[in-house]
Amino acid sequence: METLLHNEPRRVDDTAGEARWPAFCRAAEKAGFGSCLVLPLRTDRRPAGAVALYGQERHAFQGAAHDIALTFAAQGGTAVRNAALYRECRRMTDNLHTALESRATIEQAKGILNAEFGVPPEEAFQLLSRVSQKINRKVREISADLVQGQIDREMFRPVQGE
Known about the structure:
Beta-Lactamase, Arc Repressor Mutant, subunit A, rod-shaped
């Protein structure tokens, strides 16, 4: 937890002699571990997680072993950040595809309302929005139902004075 809280490595060179985390050290020693190194997986914002390395020998993570572990943790943080960026880009792309697919249907629905009630496109969209809010459904869903004839057109009749 300290590694995540402070975004800094924590090392236990000897589980038998470490005083900072007695309960953890007793459990680690009982499990057969003589040392431990916990490293943050850093991203550009905050720690994304941590990796814990355990060694059977005492003082297993000193010198070159420590430096190599730091390098791998840095690579792990980069991989975690890249995965998060990819996930966000994928979500945005999916939303864009949905918007592009919905646009044609919304335009068709606006055309239906224009033909049915003689309203201009801006007012037709306002009618779609009003019904969307009234029945708590998305404009694209309302538009699809209207285009497919699955919703009563009278719901969209303009109210005088609006």
